[in-house]
Design goal:
2 domains, binds zinc ion, five-stranded mixed beta sheet, alpha/beta, Nucleotidyltransferase, domain 5, three-stranded antiparallel beta sheet
């Protein structure tokens, strides 16, 4: 903006109503937060083509506050977020506030309020930032590693494509046990406290999901400790990983009760995570 026009702009600012001034201040503030965020993203990027790995990049204009590059080797373009879970995530001016709120273990709803985004956005962001954290994570889980799964019943309530009536917190599924109404959440933690979590998908946990999610996140020399779910046993056998089942689930009510007690002991990180995400969750027997 020319300096003459800028002076006029400042003079006009005196005529703004209180509401307009507040809006202007919020706008300027979020712009500078966006600039800070973009600068941070640029400085932490290792400057390599996400498509072919080449480091021969040429500057190729700007888009949404980030430098675009064109790869000399494969001719495709990219920026610092291409190929990461944060690519195409909007409202960058709100990311730092949101991340700060996540680090303070706020719930999805509270984080949404603090960052000024819709709760559905907050839910999506939480998963994307967690994915990004794994993306950046150095080294897999090692040593004694506990894994456990739980099932979130109400996640559909948070999604855009809601195809049924919302259910009250802590409601029950229409079908008994674990069905396609549940999202399976897998949590694994080693003794150093390093924790990973995955939404493995709908319906009960299967071996293929463990191969996809858990295998890349763990060292092959771990001792995997679980509740003895069949999927873990198959996973451990196929992957050549040592496995200790805390509770080979027995038959009858006694067996189920014991399984539940053991499961409760194992699933502390799962419970903490469920509380954090602010969701009603249920753990079917
Ligand atoms: Zn390339």
């Amino acid at each position: 903006m020319e300096s003459r026009k800028f002076r006029q702009f400042i003079e006009q600012a005196a005529t703004l109503t209180l509401r307009q001034r507040t809006d202007l201040a919020a706008c300027l503030n979020s712009t500078s937060l966006r600039e800070q965020t973009c600068a941070l993203i640029e400085t932490t990027w290792r400057q390599a083509c996400p498509h072919c790995g080449s480091r021969r990049l040429q500057r190729h204009g700007q888009a949404h506050g980030l430098q675009r590059h064109r790869c000399v080797a494969c001719a495709r373009s990219c920026n610092a977020l291409t190929g990461t879970p944060l690519a195409r995530l909007r409202h960058r001016g709100k990311w730092l506030t949101y991340l700060d709120s996540m680090l303070h273990s706020n719930t999805v709803r509270r984080a949404a309020a603090l960052a000024g985004v819709h709760k559905n956005t907050s839910f999506r962001w939480r998963h994307r930032f967690l994915m990004q954290a794994r993306h950046d994570r150095v080294g897999p889980l090692s040593g004694i590693t506990e894994a456990d799964e739980t099932y979130l019943l109400e996640s559909q309530k948070e999604s855009r494509n809601m195809d049924r009536q919302p259910r009250r917190r802590g409601g029950s599924a229409r079908r008994r046990g674990i069905s396609r109404e549940h999202d399976c959440i897998l949590v694994a933690r080693d003794r150093s406290g390093r924790t990973v979590d995955f939404v493995t998908g709908r319906a009960p946990l299967r071996h293929a999901q463990l191969q996809r999610c858990l295998r890349p996140a763990v060292d092959s020399a771990i001792l995997l400790v679980t509740d003895g779910h069949a999927a873990y046993r198959v996973f451990a056998r196929v992957s050549g990983i040592a496995h200790h089942a805390l509770n080979p689930v027995g038959r009858g009510a006694g067996g189920r009760r014991a399984a539940r007690a053991k499961r409760q002991r194992l699933s502390q990180p799962v419970q903490a995570m469920a509380a954090w995400s602010g969701n009603a969750w249920t753990m079917p027997e």
